[in-house]
TrEMBL record:
Domain Glycoside hydrolase family 2 immunoglobulin-like beta-sandwich: 225-320
Protein name: Glycoside hydrolase family 2
Keywords noted in UniProt: Glycosidase, Hydrolase
Organism from which the protein derives: Flavisolibacter ginsenosidimutans
Domain spans labelled Glycoside hydrolase family 2 catalytic: 329-459
Classification via Gene3D superfamilies: Galactose-binding domain-like, Glycosidases, Immunoglobulins
Lineage, uppermost ranks: Bacteria, Pseudomonadati, Bacteroidota, Chitinophagia, Chitinophagales
Protein backbone atom coordinates (compact mmCIF):
# COMPACT_ATOMS: atom_id res chain seq x y z
CA UNK A 1 0.00 0.00 0.00
CA UNK A 2 1.32 3.43 -0.92
CA UNK A 3 2.34 5.54 2.06
CA UNK A 4 2.87 9.24 1.39
CA UNK A 5 4.24 9.89 4.86
CA UNK A 6 6.43 7.04 6.17
CA UNK A 7 6.98 8.51 9.63
CA UNK A 8 5.26 6.05 11.98
CA UNK A 9 7.15 7.03 15.13
CA UNK A 10 5.29 10.35 15.43
CA UNK A 11 8.59 12.19 15.81
CA UNK A 12 9.64 15.36 14.06
CA UNK A 13 11.56 13.47 11.37
CA UNK A 14 11.02 15.17 8.01
CA UNK A 15 9.56 13.03 5.25
CA UNK A 16 11.56 12.68 2.08
CA UNK A 17 10.81 15.40 -0.44
CA UNK A 18 9.16 17.85 1.95
CA UNK A 19 10.46 21.37 2.34
CA UNK A 20 11.09 23.30 5.52
CA UNK A 21 8.25 25.73 4.82
CA UNK A 22 5.76 22.92 4.23
CA UNK A 23 6.73 21.30 7.50
CA UNK A 24 6.37 24.50 9.51
CA UNK A 25 2.65 24.65 8.70
CA UNK A 26 1.83 21.22 7.26
CA UNK A 27 -1.78 20.77 8.36
CA UNK A 28 -4.91 22.57 7.08
CA UNK A 29 -5.67 24.69 10.13
CA UNK A 30 -4.69 28.01 11.68
CA UNK A 31 -3.26 26.61 14.92
CA UNK A 32 0.13 24.90 15.22
CA UNK A 33 1.13 22.42 17.90
CA UNK A 34 4.73 21.66 18.95
CA UNK A 35 3.93 17.96 18.65
CA UNK A 36 4.35 15.09 16.24
CA UNK A 37 1.92 13.91 13.62
CA UNK A 38 1.47 11.34 10.87
CA UNK A 39 -0.52 11.91 7.71
CA UNK A 40 -2.77 9.04 6.72
CA UNK A 41 -3.15 10.41 3.19
CA UNK A 42 -2.40 7.99 0.38
CA UNK A 43 -3.89 4.77 -0.88
CA UNK A 44 -6.93 3.35 0.93
CA UNK A 45 -9.14 0.37 0.18
CA UNK A 46 -12.41 1.59 -1.34
CA UNK A 47 -15.89 0.23 -2.03
CA UNK A 48 -19.28 1.62 -3.01
CA UNK A 49 -22.07 0.32 -0.78
CA UNK A 50 -24.77 0.26 -3.45
CA UNK A 51 -27.43 -1.31 -1.22
CA UNK A 52 -26.40 0.58 1.94
CA UNK A 53 -26.14 -2.64 3.86
CA UNK A 54 -22.51 -2.34 4.96
CA UNK A 55 -23.47 -1.61 8.56
CA UNK A 56 -25.88 -4.55 8.84
CA UNK A 57 -23.27 -6.78 7.18
CA UNK A 58 -20.63 -5.36 9.56
CA UNK A 59 -18.07 -4.30 6.98
CA UNK A 60 -16.22 -2.58 9.81
CA UNK A 61 -15.26 -6.06 11.12
CA UNK A 62 -13.85 -7.11 7.78
CA UNK A 63 -14.69 -6.72 4.11
CA UNK A 64 -13.17 -7.70 0.78
CA UNK A 65 -12.48 -4.41 -1.02
CA UNK A 66 -12.24 -4.60 -4.79
CA UNK A 67 -10.83 -1.11 -5.39
CA UNK A 68 -8.43 1.45 -3.98
CA UNK A 69 -8.63 5.25 -3.78
CA UNK A 70 -6.24 8.07 -3.02
CA UNK A 71 -7.19 10.07 0.05
CA UNK A 72 -7.84 13.03 -0.07
CA UNK A 73 -10.17 13.08 -3.05
CA UNK A 74 -13.84 13.14 -3.87
CA UNK A 75 -16.23 10.22 -4.01
CA UNK A 76 -16.91 11.17 -7.62
CA UNK A 77 -13.21 10.86 -8.53
CA UNK A 78 -12.88 7.58 -6.67
CA UNK A 79 -15.93 6.04 -8.32
CA UNK A 80 -14.61 7.00 -11.75
CA UNK A 81 -11.19 5.52 -10.95
CA UNK A 82 -12.92 2.33 -9.84
CA UNK A 83 -14.55 2.04 -13.29
CA UNK A 84 -17.98 3.32 -12.26
CA UNK A 85 -18.83 5.75 -15.06
CA UNK A 86 -22.34 6.86 -14.11
CA UNK A 87 -22.69 9.53 -11.45
CA UNK A 88 -24.72 8.88 -8.35
CA UNK A 89 -28.21 10.33 -8.57
CA UNK A 90 -29.95 10.35 -5.20
CA UNK A 91 -27.77 8.86 -2.45
CA UNK A 92 -24.25 7.49 -2.27
CA UNK A 93 -22.58 5.42 0.46
CA UNK A 94 -18.92 4.48 0.27
CA UNK A 95 -16.41 2.83 2.59
CA UNK A 96 -12.67 3.39 3.00
CA UNK A 97 -10.23 1.30 4.99
CA UNK A 98 -6.50 1.12 5.68
CA UNK A 99 -4.05 -0.14 8.28
CA UNK A 100 -1.30 1.63 10.18
CA UNK A 101 1.20 0.35 12.76
CA UNK A 102 0.99 1.40 16.39
CA UNK A 103 2.71 4.80 16.61
CA UNK A 104 5.38 5.28 19.24
CA UNK A 105 4.58 8.49 21.04
CA UNK A 106 7.55 10.82 21.00
CA UNK A 107 6.45 11.90 24.49
CA UNK A 108 5.98 8.30 25.64
CA UNK A 109 6.37 7.83 29.36
CA UNK A 110 5.32 11.21 30.68
CA UNK A 111 1.64 10.31 30.87
CA UNK A 112 0.53 13.64 29.45
CA UNK A 113 -0.12 12.62 25.84
CA UNK A 114 -2.75 10.76 23.88
CA UNK A 115 -3.43 10.18 20.20
CA UNK A 116 -5.94 12.22 18.24
CA UNK A 117 -7.32 11.39 14.80
CA UNK A 118 -8.42 14.42 12.76
CA UNK A 119 -10.29 14.74 9.48
CA UNK A 120 -9.59 18.05 7.71
CA UNK A 121 -13.11 17.77 6.26
CA UNK A 122 -15.25 14.82 5.24
CA UNK A 123 -18.88 14.09 4.69
CA UNK A 124 -21.72 14.85 4.58
CA UNK A 125 -22.20 11.95 7.05
CA UNK A 126 -19.09 10.27 8.43
CA UNK A 127 -18.73 7.24 10.71
CA UNK A 128 -15.34 5.90 11.84
CA UNK A 129 -14.29 2.58 13.35
CA UNK A 130 -10.92 1.71 14.92
CA UNK A 131 -10.24 -2.03 14.89
CA UNK A 132 -13.97 -2.64 14.55
CA UNK A 133 -15.00 -0.31 17.39
CA UNK A 134 -17.21 2.66 16.51
CA UNK A 135 -15.57 5.94 17.56
CA UNK A 136 -17.23 9.09 18.86
CA UNK A 137 -15.99 12.56 17.99
CA UNK A 138 -14.74 14.81 20.78
CA UNK A 139 -18.23 16.34 20.71
CA UNK A 140 -19.72 12.87 21.34
CA UNK A 141 -21.10 12.18 17.84
CA UNK A 142 -21.27 8.63 16.48
CA UNK A 143 -22.21 10.16 13.11
CA UNK A 144 -20.53 13.44 12.21
CA UNK A 145 -22.61 15.70 9.96
CA UNK A 146 -21.01 18.36 7.78
CA UNK A 147 -18.40 18.40 5.01
CA UNK A 148 -16.60 21.74 5.20
CA UNK A 149 -14.75 21.79 8.55
CA UNK A 150 -12.48 19.54 10.59
CA UNK A 151 -13.47 17.14 13.37
CA UNK A 152 -11.45 14.89 15.68
CA UNK A 153 -11.45 11.66 17.70
CA UNK A 154 -9.41 10.88 20.79
CA UNK A 155 -7.95 7.37 20.58
CA UNK A 156 -7.58 5.34 23.75
CA UNK A 157 -4.59 3.12 24.39
CA UNK A 158 -6.79 0.13 25.25
CA UNK A 159 -8.27 0.17 21.74
CA UNK A 160 -4.90 0.20 19.93
CA UNK A 161 -2.98 -2.80 18.56
CA UNK A 162 0.45 -3.34 17.02
CA UNK A 163 -1.28 -3.07 13.61
CA UNK A 164 -4.44 -0.99 13.54
CA UNK A 165 -7.32 -0.86 11.07
CA UNK A 166 -9.32 2.31 10.48
CA UNK A 167 -12.64 2.05 8.62
CA UNK A 168 -14.62 5.04 7.38
CA UNK A 169 -18.19 5.12 6.07
CA UNK A 170 -19.27 8.25 4.18
CA UNK A 171 -22.81 8.97 3.00
CA UNK A 172 -24.25 11.88 1.02
CA UNK A 173 -27.54 12.62 -0.69
CA UNK A 174 -29.16 15.20 -2.95
CA UNK A 175 -31.19 16.33 0.08
CA UNK A 176 -31.96 20.01 -0.49
CA UNK A 177 -31.99 20.69 3.28
CA UNK A 178 -28.25 20.00 3.53
CA UNK A 179 -25.84 22.96 3.25
CA UNK A 180 -24.30 22.42 -0.20
CA UNK A 181 -23.62 25.83 -1.78
CA UNK A 182 -23.79 25.62 -5.57
CA UNK A 183 -23.57 21.84 -5.81
CA UNK A 184 -26.60 20.27 -7.45
CA UNK A 185 -29.48 18.96 -5.33
CA UNK A 186 -33.06 17.75 -5.70
CA UNK A 187 -34.01 21.42 -6.21
CA UNK A 188 -31.22 22.74 -8.43
CA UNK A 189 -29.80 20.45 -11.13
CA UNK A 190 -26.33 20.66 -12.61
CA UNK A 191 -25.89 23.21 -15.37
CA UNK A 192 -25.46 26.96 -15.64
CA UNK A 193 -24.47 28.20 -12.20
CA UNK A 194 -25.10 24.82 -10.52
CA UNK A 195 -22.15 22.46 -10.31
CA UNK A 196 -21.51 18.77 -9.97
CA UNK A 197 -21.14 17.36 -6.46
CA UNK A 198 -17.68 17.14 -4.97
CA UNK A 199 -18.05 15.29 -1.71
CA UNK A 200 -16.48 12.75 0.61
CA UNK A 201 -12.84 12.50 1.64
CA UNK A 202 -11.94 15.99 0.44
CA UNK A 203 -9.26 16.97 3.01
CA UNK A 204 -6.26 15.34 4.64
CA UNK A 205 -6.53 12.98 7.60
CA UNK A 206 -3.85 12.68 10.25
CA UNK A 207 -2.84 11.23 13.61
CA UNK A 208 -1.12 13.47 16.11
CA UNK A 209 -0.12 13.54 19.73
CA UNK A 210 -2.04 15.94 21.93
CA UNK A 211 -2.03 16.50 25.67
CA UNK A 212 -4.75 15.06 27.88
CA UNK A 213 -5.32 18.56 29.22
CA UNK A 214 -4.90 21.17 26.51
CA UNK A 215 -6.25 24.00 24.45
CA UNK A 216 -8.18 22.99 21.35
CA UNK A 217 -7.20 24.14 17.87
CA UNK A 218 -9.63 27.04 17.77
CA UNK A 219 -8.89 30.62 18.70
CA UNK A 220 -11.16 33.63 18.28
CA UNK A 221 -9.68 37.12 18.17
CA UNK A 222 -11.50 40.42 18.77
CA UNK A 223 -9.27 43.50 18.84
CA UNK A 224 -10.05 46.98 20.06
CA UNK A 225 -7.68 49.21 18.18
CA UNK A 226 -8.41 52.36 20.22
CA UNK A 227 -6.64 50.97 23.29
CA UNK A 228 -4.69 48.03 21.77
CA UNK A 229 -6.69 45.42 23.66
CA UNK A 230 -7.08 41.95 22.19
CA UNK A 231 -9.78 39.55 23.37
CA UNK A 232 -8.86 35.91 22.85
CA UNK A 233 -11.55 33.24 22.87
CA UNK A 234 -9.99 29.87 23.74
CA UNK A 235 -11.40 26.39 24.32
CA UNK A 236 -9.95 24.17 27.04
CA UNK A 237 -10.14 20.37 26.80
CA UNK A 238 -9.56 18.72 30.19
CA UNK A 239 -9.50 15.06 31.25
CA UNK A 240 -8.24 15.72 34.79
CA UNK A 241 -10.20 18.31 36.80
CA UNK A 242 -8.18 20.77 38.82
CA UNK A 243 -6.52 24.15 38.98
CA UNK A 244 -4.82 25.43 35.84
CA UNK A 245 -3.07 28.54 34.60
CA UNK A 246 -3.84 29.95 31.16
CA UNK A 247 -0.63 31.67 30.04
CA UNK A 248 -0.50 33.87 26.96
CA UNK A 249 2.65 35.22 25.26
CA UNK A 250 2.59 37.56 22.27
CA UNK A 251 5.54 38.06 19.94
CA UNK A 252 6.35 40.12 16.92
CA UNK A 253 5.95 37.65 14.06
CA UNK A 254 9.48 38.14 12.75
CA UNK A 255 11.12 38.09 16.18
CA UNK A 256 9.77 35.05 18.01
CA UNK A 257 13.27 34.28 19.32
CA UNK A 258 13.16 37.48 21.40
CA UNK A 259 11.25 38.21 24.59
CA UNK A 260 7.47 38.48 24.22
CA UNK A 261 6.10 41.99 23.77
CA UNK A 262 3.15 41.12 26.01
CA UNK A 263 2.26 38.28 28.35
CA UNK A 264 -0.26 37.49 31.05
CA UNK A 265 -1.58 34.62 33.17
CA UNK A 266 -5.13 33.71 34.15
CA UNK A 267 -5.98 31.15 36.88
CA UNK A 268 -8.77 28.73 35.93
CA UNK A 269 -10.54 26.03 37.93
CA UNK A 270 -11.59 23.49 35.30
CA UNK A 271 -13.92 20.51 35.40
CA UNK A 272 -13.54 17.58 33.02
CA UNK A 273 -14.77 18.34 29.51
CA UNK A 274 -14.63 21.58 27.56
CA UNK A 275 -14.97 25.21 28.48
CA UNK A 276 -14.89 28.37 26.37
CA UNK A 277 -12.92 31.17 27.99
CA UNK A 278 -12.40 34.78 26.93
CA UNK A 279 -9.38 36.69 28.21
CA UNK A 280 -8.00 40.12 27.35
CA UNK A 281 -4.38 41.16 26.77
CA UNK A 282 -2.98 44.59 25.94
CA UNK A 283 -0.49 44.79 23.08
CA UNK A 284 1.56 47.95 23.66
CA UNK A 285 2.42 50.19 20.69
CA UNK A 286 0.54 47.81 18.41
CA UNK A 287 0.76 47.98 14.65
CA UNK A 288 -2.55 47.26 12.98
CA UNK A 289 -3.31 44.75 10.25
CA UNK A 290 -4.45 46.24 6.93
CA UNK A 291 -4.17 45.27 3.24
CA UNK A 292 -1.36 47.76 2.63
CA UNK A 293 0.51 46.59 5.76
CA UNK A 294 -0.63 43.11 6.90
CA UNK A 295 1.17 43.14 10.23
CA UNK A 296 0.82 39.89 12.15
CA UNK A 297 1.68 38.87 15.69
CA UNK A 298 2.29 35.39 17.09
CA UNK A 299 0.31 34.08 20.05
CA UNK A 300 1.63 31.18 22.13
CA UNK A 301 -1.06 30.02 24.54
CA UNK A 302 -0.31 27.47 27.27
CA UNK A 303 -2.54 25.53 29.62
CA UNK A 304 -0.39 24.80 32.68
CA UNK A 305 -1.42 22.13 35.19
CA UNK A 306 -0.62 22.03 38.94
CA UNK A 307 2.62 20.14 38.31
CA UNK A 308 3.85 22.89 36.00
CA UNK A 309 3.40 20.90 32.78
CA UNK A 310 2.45 23.25 29.92
CA UNK A 311 0.43 22.21 26.86
CA UNK A 312 0.82 24.88 24.18
CA UNK A 313 -0.61 25.99 20.86
CA UNK A 314 0.61 28.69 18.48
CA UNK A 315 -1.19 30.88 15.99
CA UNK A 316 -0.85 34.26 14.33
CA UNK A 317 -3.30 37.12 14.61
CA UNK A 318 -3.64 40.76 13.68
CA UNK A 319 -5.19 43.78 15.35
CA UNK A 320 -7.87 45.21 13.12
CA UNK A 321 -11.31 46.72 13.42
CA UNK A 322 -14.03 46.66 10.75
CA UNK A 323 -17.13 48.85 10.96
CA UNK A 324 -20.07 49.92 8.80
CA UNK A 325 -20.98 53.56 9.46
CA UNK A 326 -23.21 55.68 7.28
CA UNK A 327 -22.00 55.66 3.71
CA UNK A 328 -18.74 53.80 4.26
CA UNK A 329 -16.91 50.76 5.53
CA UNK A 330 -14.16 51.67 7.99
CA UNK A 331 -11.05 49.61 8.58
CA UNK A 332 -9.11 50.66 11.67
CA UNK A 333 -11.22 53.84 11.76
CA UNK A 334 -10.32 54.83 8.19
CA UNK A 335 -12.82 54.72 5.32
CA UNK A 336 -11.88 52.05 2.78
CA UNK A 337 -13.43 51.33 -0.61
CA UNK A 338 -13.83 47.59 -1.20
CA UNK A 339 -12.45 46.64 -4.62
CA UNK A 340 -13.76 43.09 -4.63
CA UNK A 341 -13.97 40.03 -6.84
CA UNK A 342 -16.12 36.91 -6.60
CA UNK A 343 -14.10 33.70 -6.23
CA UNK A 344 -15.22 30.09 -6.59
CA UNK A 345 -12.21 27.77 -6.18
CA UNK A 346 -14.23 24.65 -7.06
CA UNK A 347 -11.86 21.69 -7.30
CA UNK A 348 -8.69 23.81 -7.54
CA UNK A 349 -5.61 22.52 -5.73
CA UNK A 350 -3.99 24.64 -3.05
CA UNK A 351 -1.17 25.60 -5.42
CA UNK A 352 -3.76 26.76 -7.96
CA UNK A 353 -5.67 28.66 -5.27
CA UNK A 354 -2.43 30.37 -4.27
CA UNK A 355 -1.78 31.48 -7.85
CA UNK A 356 -5.38 32.77 -8.08
CA UNK A 357 -4.97 34.81 -4.89
CA UNK A 358 -1.81 36.51 -6.13
CA UNK A 359 -3.51 37.18 -9.47
CA UNK A 360 -6.48 38.82 -7.72
CA UNK A 361 -4.05 41.04 -5.86
CA UNK A 362 -2.47 41.99 -9.22
CA UNK A 363 -5.91 42.95 -10.52
CA UNK A 364 -6.02 45.58 -7.79
CA UNK A 365 -8.46 43.82 -5.48
CA UNK A 366 -8.32 44.37 -1.74
CA UNK A 367 -11.32 42.05 -1.13
CA UNK A 368 -12.10 38.49 -2.23
CA UNK A 369 -15.63 37.19 -1.79
CA UNK A 370 -15.35 33.40 -1.38
CA UNK A 371 -18.63 32.39 -2.88
CA UNK A 372 -20.86 30.04 -0.89
CA UNK A 373 -18.40 27.15 -0.63
CA UNK A 374 -16.19 25.30 1.80
CA UNK A 375 -12.55 25.87 0.92
CA UNK A 376 -9.08 24.69 1.87
CA UNK A 377 -8.57 26.49 5.20
CA UNK A 378 -5.02 27.43 4.24
CA UNK A 379 -6.61 30.14 2.08
CA UNK A 380 -7.26 32.17 5.25
CA UNK A 381 -3.62 31.97 6.37
CA UNK A 382 -2.55 33.06 2.90
CA UNK A 383 -4.89 36.06 2.90
CA UNK A 384 -3.65 37.08 6.35
CA UNK A 385 -0.08 37.22 5.06
CA UNK A 386 -0.91 38.80 1.67
CA UNK A 387 -3.18 41.50 3.03
CA UNK A 388 -6.39 40.48 1.28
CA UNK A 389 -9.75 41.09 2.92
CA UNK A 390 -12.08 38.09 2.76
CA UNK A 391 -15.86 37.88 2.56
CA UNK A 392 -16.97 34.42 3.73
CA UNK A 393 -20.32 32.75 3.09
CA UNK A 394 -22.07 29.78 4.66
CA UNK A 395 -22.73 27.05 2.05
CA UNK A 396 -26.47 27.30 1.65
CA UNK A 397 -29.15 24.66 1.72
CA UNK A 398 -31.53 24.71 -1.24
CA UNK A 399 -34.85 24.53 0.60
CA UNK A 400 -36.32 26.58 3.40
CA UNK A 401 -37.48 24.35 6.24
CA UNK A 402 -36.98 24.12 9.98
CA UNK A 403 -34.58 21.24 9.30
CA UNK A 404 -32.53 23.18 6.74
CA UNK A 405 -32.23 26.10 9.15
CA UNK A 406 -30.94 23.76 11.87
CA UNK A 407 -28.31 22.36 9.48
CA UNK A 408 -27.40 25.90 8.38
CA UNK A 409 -26.88 27.01 11.97
CA UNK A 410 -24.67 24.00 12.76
CA UNK A 411 -22.54 24.66 9.68
CA UNK A 412 -22.17 28.35 10.57
CA UNK A 413 -21.07 27.56 14.14
CA UNK A 414 -18.53 24.98 12.94
CA UNK A 415 -17.04 27.48 10.49
CA UNK A 416 -16.91 30.26 13.07
CA UNK A 417 -15.04 28.05 15.54
CA UNK A 418 -12.22 27.49 13.06
CA UNK A 419 -11.99 30.86 11.26
CA UNK A 420 -12.19 33.27 14.19
CA UNK A 421 -8.45 33.92 14.42
CA UNK A 422 -7.95 35.37 10.93
CA UNK A 423 -7.75 39.18 10.57
CA UNK A 424 -8.37 38.85 6.82
CA UNK A 425 -11.94 37.61 7.35
CA UNK A 426 -14.09 40.74 7.70
CA UNK A 427 -17.55 39.98 6.25
CA UNK A 428 -19.92 37.01 6.56
CA UNK A 429 -23.04 36.30 4.51
CA UNK A 430 -25.67 34.14 6.17
CA UNK A 431 -27.53 33.54 2.88
CA UNK A 432 -27.06 34.43 -0.77
CA UNK A 433 -29.93 35.41 -3.08
CA UNK A 434 -32.36 33.65 -0.70
CA UNK A 435 -31.08 30.16 -1.65
CA UNK A 436 -32.35 28.08 1.24
CA UNK A 437 -34.55 31.00 2.32
CA UNK A 438 -36.86 31.22 -0.68
CA UNK A 439 -39.81 32.17 1.51
CA UNK A 440 -38.00 35.03 3.20
CA UNK A 441 -40.62 37.54 2.01
CA UNK A 442 -43.61 35.54 3.25
CA UNK A 443 -42.48 33.35 6.16
CA UNK A 444 -41.93 35.08 9.52
CA UNK A 445 -40.09 31.99 10.82
CA UNK A 446 -37.46 32.29 8.10
CA UNK A 447 -36.93 35.97 8.82
CA UNK A 448 -36.84 35.36 12.56
CA UNK A 449 -34.14 32.72 12.20
CA UNK A 450 -31.98 35.01 10.09
CA UNK A 451 -32.49 37.90 12.51
CA UNK A 452 -31.60 35.64 15.45
CA UNK A 453 -28.34 34.60 13.78
CA UNK A 454 -27.55 38.21 12.87
CA UNK A 455 -28.00 39.24 16.50
CA UNK A 456 -25.92 36.26 17.66
CA UNK A 457 -23.08 37.30 15.37
CA UNK A 458 -23.21 40.88 16.63
CA UNK A 459 -22.85 39.71 20.24
CA UNK A 460 -20.53 36.70 19.93
CA UNK A 461 -18.42 37.76 16.94
CA UNK A 462 -18.27 41.56 16.81
CA UNK A 463 -15.07 41.38 14.74
CA UNK A 464 -17.14 40.72 11.59
CA UNK A 465 -19.65 42.59 9.48
CA UNK A 466 -22.70 40.43 8.74
CA UNK A 467 -24.99 40.38 5.71
CA UNK A 468 -28.36 38.73 6.24
CA UNK A 469 -29.17 37.73 2.64
CA UNK A 470 -26.76 38.99 0.02
CA UNK A 471 -28.06 40.44 -3.23
CA UNK A 472 -31.65 41.40 -2.42
CA UNK A 473 -34.52 40.78 0.04
CA UNK A 474 -32.69 42.12 3.09
CA UNK A 475 -34.73 42.02 6.26
CA UNK A 476 -36.15 45.16 7.85
CA UNK A 477 -37.73 44.89 11.29
CA UNK A 478 -39.48 47.98 12.66
CA UNK A 479 -37.60 49.97 10.05
CA UNK A 480 -34.17 48.73 11.13
CA UNK A 481 -32.07 46.76 8.66
CA UNK A 482 -30.90 43.41 10.00
CA UNK A 483 -27.73 43.59 7.95
CA UNK A 484 -24.58 45.65 8.36
CA UNK A 485 -24.49 46.28 4.61
CA UNK A 486 -27.15 46.93 1.99
CA UNK A 487 -25.97 44.78 -0.93
CA UNK A 488 -27.33 44.37 -4.45
CA UNK A 489 -26.59 42.07 -7.38
CA UNK A 490 -26.89 44.05 -10.60
CA UNK A 491 -26.32 42.44 -13.99
CA UNK A 492 -26.53 44.20 -17.34
CA UNK A 493 -24.05 44.45 -20.24
CA UNK A 494 -25.49 47.81 -21.30
CA UNK A 495 -23.60 50.84 -19.99
CA UNK A 496 -26.58 53.23 -20.12
CA UNK A 497 -28.79 50.77 -18.28
CA UNK A 498 -25.95 50.38 -15.75
CA UNK A 499 -25.86 54.12 -15.10
CA UNK A 500 -29.61 54.14 -14.57
CA UNK A 501 -29.52 51.22 -12.12
CA UNK A 502 -26.81 52.89 -10.07
CA UNK A 503 -28.69 56.17 -9.97
CA UNK A 504 -31.84 54.42 -8.82
CA UNK A 505 -30.17 52.41 -6.09
CA UNK A 506 -28.22 55.32 -4.56
CA UNK A 507 -31.40 57.40 -4.55
CA UNK A 508 -33.02 54.80 -2.30
CA UNK A 509 -35.22 52.94 -4.76
CA UNK A 510 -35.91 49.52 -3.27
CA UNK A 511 -37.89 47.83 -6.06
CA UNK A 512 -37.25 47.32 -9.75
CA UNK A 513 -33.49 47.57 -9.34
CA UNK A 514 -32.34 44.00 -8.61
CA UNK A 515 -34.10 40.77 -9.54
CA UNK A 516 -36.26 41.03 -6.38
CA UNK A 517 -37.07 43.90 -4.00
CA UNK A 518 -34.08 44.91 -1.93
CA UNK A 519 -36.06 44.91 1.34
CA UNK A 520 -38.63 42.55 2.89
CA UNK A 521 -40.49 42.85 6.18
CA UNK A 522 -41.23 46.33 7.46
CA UNK A 523 -40.62 49.43 5.34
CA UNK A 524 -37.04 50.63 5.37
CA UNK A 525 -36.00 54.08 4.22
CA UNK A 526 -32.44 53.96 2.96
CA UNK A 527 -31.21 57.53 3.57
CA UNK A 528 -27.65 56.10 3.40
CA UNK A 529 -27.89 54.74 6.95
CA UNK A 530 -25.73 51.75 6.04
CA UNK A 531 -23.04 51.33 3.39
CA UNK A 532 -24.26 50.30 -0.07
CA UNK A 533 -22.24 47.64 -1.88
CA UNK A 534 -22.86 46.27 -5.38
CA UNK A 535 -21.77 42.79 -4.35
CA UNK A 536 -22.13 41.19 -7.81
CA UNK A 537 -21.84 42.82 -11.23
CA UNK A 538 -20.27 42.15 -14.61
CA UNK A 539 -20.31 38.49 -15.47
CA UNK A 540 -19.09 39.52 -18.92
CA UNK A 541 -18.43 36.30 -20.78
CA UNK A 542 -21.24 34.30 -19.17
CA UNK A 543 -24.02 33.95 -21.73
CA UNK A 544 -26.81 34.60 -19.21
CA UNK A 545 -25.27 37.97 -18.28
CA UNK A 546 -24.64 39.44 -21.70
CA UNK A 547 -22.86 36.93 -23.90
CA UNK A 548 -19.22 36.18 -24.64
CA UNK A 549 -16.78 39.08 -24.84
CA UNK A 550 -13.16 38.98 -25.93
CA UNK A 551 -10.54 40.24 -23.49
CA UNK A 552 -10.19 43.70 -25.04
CA UNK A 553 -13.92 44.36 -25.08
CA UNK A 554 -14.27 42.98 -21.57
CA UNK A 555 -11.48 45.26 -20.35
CA UNK A 556 -13.17 48.34 -21.82
CA UNK A 557 -16.52 47.42 -20.26
CA UNK A 558 -14.99 46.81 -16.84
CA UNK A 559 -13.21 50.16 -16.91
CA UNK A 560 -16.38 52.00 -17.89
CA UNK A 561 -18.59 50.20 -15.36
CA UNK A 562 -16.05 50.66 -12.58
CA UNK A 563 -15.77 54.37 -13.30
CA UNK A 564 -19.53 54.77 -12.89
CA UNK A 565 -19.44 52.95 -9.56
CA UNK A 566 -16.83 55.35 -8.19
CA UNK A 567 -18.78 58.42 -9.25
CA UNK A 568 -21.48 57.56 -6.72
CA UNK A 569 -21.70 57.17 -2.91
CA UNK A 570 -21.11 53.42 -2.98
CA UNK A 571 -18.87 51.69 -0.42
CA UNK A 572 -17.57 48.85 -2.57
CA UNK A 573 -18.20 46.44 -5.40
CA UNK A 574 -17.54 42.80 -6.26
CA UNK A 575 -16.84 41.90 -9.88
CA UNK A 576 -18.08 38.50 -11.08
CA UNK A 577 -15.74 36.60 -11.26
CA UNK A 578 -12.12 35.49 -10.83
CA UNK A 579 -11.87 32.19 -12.76
CA UNK A 580 -14.01 30.08 -15.07
CA UNK A 581 -15.80 27.21 -13.39
CA UNK A 582 -17.81 24.57 -15.27
CA UNK A 583 -20.42 26.42 -17.40
CA UNK A 584 -19.58 29.87 -16.01
CA UNK A 585 -17.04 31.19 -18.52
CA UNK A 586 -16.57 34.68 -17.19
CA UNK A 587 -13.22 34.54 -15.40
CA UNK A 588 -10.35 37.01 -15.67
CA UNK A 589 -7.73 34.55 -14.40
CA UNK A 590 -6.63 31.27 -15.98
CA UNK A 591 -7.76 28.58 -13.54
CA UNK A 592 -4.68 26.42 -14.15
CA UNK A 593 -1.85 28.90 -14.58
CA UNK A 594 -3.06 31.97 -12.68
CA UNK A 595 -2.30 34.19 -15.68
CA UNK A 596 -4.45 37.29 -16.23
CA UNK A 597 -6.46 37.75 -19.44
CA UNK A 598 -6.86 41.48 -18.70
CA UNK A 599 -4.39 44.19 -17.61
CA UNK A 600 -3.05 44.32 -14.07
CA UNK A 601 -4.75 46.85 -11.81
CA UNK A 602 -8.00 46.73 -13.79
CA UNK A 603 -10.20 46.45 -10.68
CA UNK A 604 -8.29 48.93 -8.53
CA UNK A 605 -10.11 52.19 -7.89
CA UNK A 606 -8.47 55.47 -8.75
CA UNK A 607 -7.38 57.39 -5.66
CA UNK A 608 -10.15 59.64 -4.45
CA UNK A 609 -11.63 60.69 -1.09
Amino acid sequence: MQQLHPNYSLTRTKAEGTTKEEFINPLPRAVLRPNSFMLLDGEWNFAVDTQDDGITQRWYLGHQYASTALWPGSIEEHMEAAGIKERWQDKVVVWYEREFPLPQLAENGNGHSLLQLTFGACGYETMVWLNGKLLKTIEGEEVHHGEYTSFSYELHEADMRMMNRITVRIADTMDADIPRGKQESHVYKRGGIWYQTYTGAVRSIWLETVERNRLRSRVGVVSIVEDNLVRFNLTTRVQDPGNYILRLKIYNRKHTDEAPIASDEFPLKLDAGEKDQRVVVEVPDAKYWAPEDPNLYVLIAELVDESGYAASIETHFGLRKIEARGCCVYLNNKAVYLDGILYQPGTATYDEIKSHMYAMKKLGCNLVRIHIAGVDPRIYNLADKMGLLLWVEVPSPHSSTQRSRAFHREELLRMLALIGTHPSVVIWSLYNEDWGAQDIATNPDTRQYIMDMYHYMQIAHPQFLVVDNDGWQHISYTGRLKSDLLTAHLYTPDLERWKGLLDEIVSGKMEGVAAFPLIVGDPFFFRRQVPLIVSEWGGFGFSDYGGPKDSDERTMLIKAFKEELRKRPIAGDVYTQATNIEDERNGLIDAKTGELSVPEGLLKSANRP
